[in-house]
Write a structure and sequence with these properties.
This protein is about 30% helix and about 25% strand. The chain is elongated and about 115 Å long. The termini are far apart. The strands form three sheets. A nine-stranded mixed sheet has the order 6-5-4-7-8-9-10-11-12, with helices on one face. The chain has a three-stranded mixed sheet with strand order 1-3-2, covered by helices on one side. The protein has a two-stranded antiparallel ribbon with strand order 13-14. It folds into two domains: about 70 residues, Ubiquitin-like (UB roll) (Roll); about 150 residues, Rossmann fold, CATH 3.40.50. With about 280 residues, it is of the alpha/beta class.
């Protein structure tokens, strides 16, 4: 009985799989690796060939490049800055790189580039708008946000108010708080943005910044000095409007050289000096 049980027990034992030689396993692994590499190379060649076929196809050549937002810059100048060649392939154009090239131009504040398959590229830009010239050791252009965006060229400053008295420490980078002096200048230019303003920017010749007495303007065709000081420019503009209207009504506009509204509770009119009959300067 014992012999039979032992025989059955031995028969129930699992048979061990034959051991594969090590060199065969290594050979199998190497072959699998080579096959995988060859498949990867073949797929890469296929993708490259397809890419070249598509990017060199006349079907995707840009037949139209539409440009929006350019007022100062010509279309030719913008396309040259974008580095888009004539008949460029729309699929081969690197949109991010084109945008980077555009933003490198000092007059371009924002840029957007899109493609419309099969043969169209859209470019939209927003140009900086120069509102004044800052005159220091060098001359710079100031935009409506109160930031310098380029050094002024020969014809860039024509007709713009000239700002004097600012220091390099007042010209904080974009995103940083403005200094008191620059903030005052920016507020003046904002109030003068509208042609209906009592002091439109087009009428301002010079903005003088003094850290002690504040802002003084030279404005109008027959130049007048306007003393504004610091703060509450909106209220001072209202008082200035009343003073100018009164002078005009009484036909005294030409007899006053300086109007001082820097004090919060009074307006001071300083008469102009004229030459008398005896050739001497007198006040009127």
């Amino acid at each position: 009985m014992l012999g039979r049980k032992r025989t059955r027990k031995n028969q129930l034992k699992k048979r061990k799989a034959p051991k594969v030689p090590a060199y065969r396993q290594a050979l199998k692994t190497a072959l699998a690796t080579i096959v995988g590499m060859l498949a990867t190379v073949a797929m890469s060649i296929l993708f490259i060939s397809c890419y070249q076929l598509i990017t060199q196809s006349d079907y995707f050549h840009a037949k139209a490049v539409y440009l929006q937002g350019n007022k100062r810059l010509t279309k030719q100048a913008v396309l040259h800055q974008a580095q888009i060649s004539e008949n460029a392939n729309t699929l081969a154009v690197n949109l991010a790189l084109v945008r980077k090239h555009l933003l490198a131009h000092p007059w371009i504040a924002e840029a957007e580039v899109q493609r419309e398959l099969p043969d169209t590229i859209h470019i939209r830009i927003r140009e900086h708008k120069a509102v004044a010239v800052i005159k220091m050791e060098r001359t710079f252009l100031l935009n409506a946000s109160g930031h310098i965006f380029k050094e002024a060229g020969t014809y860039d400053a024509n007709g713009l108010p000239v700002i004097e008295g600012l220091r390099y420490t007042d010209l904080n980078p974009a995103g940083q708080p403005q200094s008191i002096a620059l903030k005052a200048v920016t507020e003046i230019l904002r109030l003068g943005h509208s042609p209906a303003s009592v002091l439109p920017n087009a009428s301002i010749r010079r903005i003088k910044v003094d850290p002690q007495i504040g802002i003084a303007l030279t404005a109008f065709k027959a130049p007048k000095m306007i003393q504004l000081g610091f703060s509450d420019y909106q209220g001072k503009y209202k008082r200035l409007h009343k003073a100018l209207r009164l002078l005009k009504r009484r036909q005294l506009s030409k007899k006053f050289q300086t109007i001082d509204v820097s004090h919060p509770d009074r307006t001071v009119l300083i008469p102009a000096e004229v030459i008398g009959a005896n050739g001497k300067v007198k006040e009127v």
